[in-house]
Amino acid sequence: MDFLREIEGKRAHDPIFNDKAMSCGRSLILGPVIVGAGPSGLATAACLKEKGVPSVILERSNRIASLWQLNTYDRLCLHLPKQFCELPLMPFPENFPTYPTKQQFIEYLEAYAERFDIQPRFNESVARAEYDHTLGFWRVKTETTEYLCRWLIVATGENAEAVVPEIEGRRKFGGPIVHTSSYKSGDVYRGKRVLVVGCGNSGMEVCLDLCNHNARPSLVVRDSVHILPRQMLGKSTFGLSMWLLKWLPMRLVDHLLLIVSRFMLGDTAKFGLDRPKLGPLELKNLSGKTPVLDVGTLAKIKSGDIKICPGIRQLKCHAVEFVDGRTENFDAIIFATGYKSNVPFWLKERDLFSEKDGLPRRPFPNGWKGNCGLYAVGFTKRGLLGASMDAKRISEDIERCWKADAKRLTVKSHT
Questions:
Q1: Which single residue of 31, 146, 269, 357 has CA 20 to 30 Å from 235?
Q2: What is the pLDDT of residues 110-137, one digit of tens each?
Q3: DSSP track, 240-276
């Protein structure tokens, strides 16, 4: 490669590139460095390998897909059918159900890594990554090593860190307060009064799990929310939506989805679940807010097994005061308040990623590529399908540079 010759020259004149320095905590990576060994990082590494481009994955935990393996509840299944969640180049096994379980998805990811011989460097937490304009390389620093690379792929995703809101009186509560990232099963809450804060897919499903373990859950609903049946007209709601969008404008598809939902689920506003003014697809497209795909929680709300509550004003000793002035007693609180990106904490770059939320500044589908060989995968707010699209684009882009360098090197070697 052309840039390899540059390195040889720099080794002779630049002290950071001499052999002694390279052996003392510095590592030169010929291909891209990928930060994160979740589905996005694995997909990108596989796509690159298929095109003959080597890569190195740095992963802060001791296993692949650590979020899935360590920070998800036991009953979790994929919310979308498996054909919309498979990674590039390898479908799910045919014997897997339409909505694979958490453990099945983990098995799929482990098989994926084995098939493409992806071997992340575990327990390598990136503390800082910065582009060195003098050298023309990215400096990616962990506790033990500084990696030098031409391309840097950020695959830490939208869900790197749990979001736990500050609420007045937290220290007074006295009972357990956890985030869903620490929740495994409702078994430990059997017979207890549990307040779940957050009405997204996780909050709804945790409430259902608590009911199934004979707990007494209540659900804080502060905002409007779209609840759709997971299946419509014999098809997955997501699959039906994607098919309709091929022929109809988004607003009309939204209108049809809401008509069918009203027929199947009834008026959710009667139970304290007001719908947003924008349709579910339009809202998802503009804000990234995902509609809830109901797996049985709404029936428990209708029956009164799950109680709907307004926002929290403050916590008291084993009690919660709500914004409407009511106070109720609870034994535990579970925050289903989502996750956030951690990119601003370690990536010293201001063009591709926003410092405010750690997400790409440019909206989908233009947020995957930055300057100086920087890429983002898995930040589309479109789940595994969006991550796969990113992985394919990134591998194609880097392949062009890789082959161009190889061609120039071949021409020079013959002159």
A1: 269
A2: 999 999 999 999 999 999 999 999 999 9
A3: HHHHHHTTS-HHHHHHHHHHHHHHHH--GGGGT-PPP
Range of the domain at 272: 164-338
| Tally of domains in the chain | 2
Of 285, 318, 338, the one marking the end of a domain is 338
Rounded Cα distance between 257 and 237, Å, is: 8
Q: Is residue 13 domain-resident?
A: no
Judgement on whether residues 155 and 172 belong to the same structural domain of the protein: no
56 torsion bin: left (phi>0), alpha (psi -120 to 50), beta (else): beta
- Domain with residue 298: its CATH number is 3.50.50.60
Full-model pTM? 0.90
Tell me the CA distances in angstroms from 55 to 16, 64, 87, 132, one per residue in order: 22, 16, 18, 20
Whether the Cβ atoms of residue 12 and residue 4 lie closer than 8 Å to each other: no
Does one domain contain both 330 and 235?
yes
- Range 176-204 burial, b when 16+ CB lie within 10 A, else e: ebebbbebeebeebeebbbbbbbbbbbbb
Residue 413 backbone phi and psi in degrees, to 5: -70, -15
